Records
---
Amino acid sequence: MEIVLFAGFALVASVAAVLVVTRRHAVYSALYLVITMAALAGIYILLEGYFIWIIQIIVYAGAIMVLFLFVIMLLDIRQEDVLWARRDRGQILLAALLSLVLLVEMVLALGRSALSGAQTAPASIQGFGTTQTVGRLLFTDYLFPFEITSVILLIAMVGAMVLAKRQVK
Amino acid sequence: MQVPLSAYLILSAFLFLVGVVGVATRRNALIIFMCIELMLNAVNLTFVAFARFLNSMNGQIVVFFVMVVAAAEVAVGLAIIIAIYRNRETMDVAELNLLKW
């Protein structure tokens, strides 16, 4: 059953990711990216990430992608992107070729490395991946990074406001 | 019969490389930004897979922080794109070539 679920989610995520890269208009790419993120959230459930999958839906699909769609609608982009311009064709071919080589190399390396010793997941510790465990870790071992993230978010807010403010002429 | 670790890693590698091809190929700044988010998601999948298979919660905590940093980066990056669009009326990165020799 787990294999069927993983195969389904992986197929949806892969197809949607390829569609993100190949659409002409930015809105379609954004919507396919939301589908990719939702499929990845499903895979996180299979990996016992019971806190991470809901955070993925809320933060990534529900805030970040909504922000993308706000900006696309705000700027009201009507013209469609030229998908494969004539003068870029050499660069596109080179990028595709090198990525294909890297993909084959990664599949070979990941498929047969020392990782194959850890192919079956060990029995998980008590409360693995639950909100309680994540919360306890965030407030004990990872307290300093947790406080720093509040500063990061403040910086991002101030920076976004300063950059996007309309200049008063 | 469980799903092996290499299956998750191969899926993550594929998503990452789709993102790389998107960044290297497209000319629209918003779509390039979306491909960067795709790469971040692929890395998150690697972290969560290893957290499960090494039976350690550290991977999921790192994913939490990666999501926070990604949110901050998206906010600032979209503000930059808005500012560029307001000044130059274009979303095409090939036309942002003032620093090019």
---
Amino acid sequence: MATQRKNVWAFRFTTLSLVLIPVAVGINYVGKLFASALKLPLWLDSIGTVLAGMLAGPWIGAISGAVNNIIFGITADPVSFWYLITSIVIGLLVGYLAMTGWIRDFPRAVVLGLIVALAAAIVSTPINVFLWEGTTGNIWGDGLYTILRNGGTPIWIASFIDELVVDLLDKVATVVISFLIFKALPQRLTGLFAGQDQVERL
Amino acid sequence: MQFTLFVPGDSWMHRLDPMSKVLLTVIGLVCTFLLPGHLAPALLLAASLVLLASAGVLRRSTAVFAGVSLIAVTFFVVQGLVYAGNQHPALAIGPVTFYREGLLLGLRLTLRLYNILASSLILILTNRPSDLVESLMRRGLPSRFGYVIIAVLQIIPTMVEASARITDAQRSRGMETEGSLWVRLRAFIPLMGPLVTSSLIATEERALALEVRGFASNRRLTFLHEESIPGYAWPVRIAALAVLALGIAGRVMLS
């Protein structure tokens, strides 16, 4: 249903797509809340960004990611501001790949999750090296980092692996959960954001 | 339901205009990376703490600081063990040896972490987020973007309430929220799905309501409140810029 559009990168800043952005940020927040309420060993704090990308394309996905980290940066979690680019890349990548057929079926969605995890780790690594000499603050990842550095692995590679083990499960789960929710949405809703401009014509 | 850390109050810092507070925070962040060694960053941290204390938000700041103390501990442990420049053993506990150079790097990173937090908290704790957005809109932030940010601040408490309702509803239908990891993971979808669907349906209504009220209009906007900038805003800004200049001068002279 998503591949019928000609230009994936076209800007579609309708009122409807702008209103989607705050909802995406809210979904991110509630996702994190549910994950901690269920005591899951995952963050699941970017489901909204991923869904915004799937629903309305790369630009709205990217803006949702940016707004998410800006808002939490200026209200609750100062460090999140520094990982702005990571969120933007997640929204952009999911938006683009979703529009080009990567959420057609379940196996592809898993691969999409792996791609997102890899991209998130690639983008976050320079930030981790710049800010904290490569550690991530996650006990398991940092433990691995210590072992790798002790064995003589270069700082960038150790830091990348540190970030990747943290991101891998989380991002795959995030994308798969978003995919399952997306597939269960009524077609009227998914069509609404995919640029059929129903609201504008009223 | 409050998800921001903002502490309402009437201190001089609370009355200061948002843009001056942004300036203080940005200069604090720049100095965090500008100042070399250990003493200068420690002094910067002390200065930020004095500002936070004068605004009456030190207690809330301490809670935030305590929340990340584990990260600070990992800095000392990881760098003390495996920092590339490690030469002089400082401390041996059983089979593991911590090195002086790595521990000093851990101290630098810890000061960096707390400086980033303290500088940001000046803005976060004393500034109502919507005031900052309004200030930015007066200075040219597109009003649609301003709406998006203000809408997030309003929508999150609403969605958190909805999430509590959905949790109760699904529990009453027999959904299990405790047990093995798989059980808990499976519970995530029936919780999240209805929330996503209902909030997406609400966006359609909200978009219509906004359109009807001229959201897409390109006319110049007026503001409900007058902007108030206290008389001491400029002295504060100049003092902050002087600190920045001092920091840059110190950095240049030392290198």
